[in-house]
Design goal:
This protein is mainly alpha-helical and 132 residues long. It is 33% helix and 8% strand. The strands form two sheets. The protein has a three-stranded mixed β-sheet, with no helix packed on it. A two-stranded antiparallel sheet has the order 4-5. Keywords: Chaperone. Residues 54-63, 71-90 have a biased composition (Polar residues). Residues 51-103 are annotated as: Disordered. This is Nas2 N-terminal domain-containing protein.
Length: 132
Amino acid sequence: GSDMDSPLVDPEGFPRADVDVIQVRQLRVSMIETRNDLRLLMRRIEQGLHDLHSTSVPMSTATAAPPSGPMPQSVTSLSPDASSEANEPASSHERRAFARVASLSPDSPAWEAGLKKEDTILQFGHVHSENH
């Protein structure tokens, strides 16, 4: 067998008889190109995340404490456009939770919005129990 670092020639400088040298070289080139592509993509993603976090979250918001005071156990809507009639069940008494908050990470968007563990989600944008 052969790996990325094993020699493709024997001690006398001749191609090894136990490996397909051309195939191994092609596979090595493909692996190196794939690694380079991955590194480039990871750098782009990292830079994009740095850019996103540096522009979208002001420092005062990032260090702010969560809202104080009692929070409702049930959240009816998390978006301003959630009241469109085409996306809601016929009446509010028909609404039932389609999700439950299992856990929260400190400083996450859900935590900053005031959600608590075991809160139920009745509607999120246009998603509710009738269409989910």
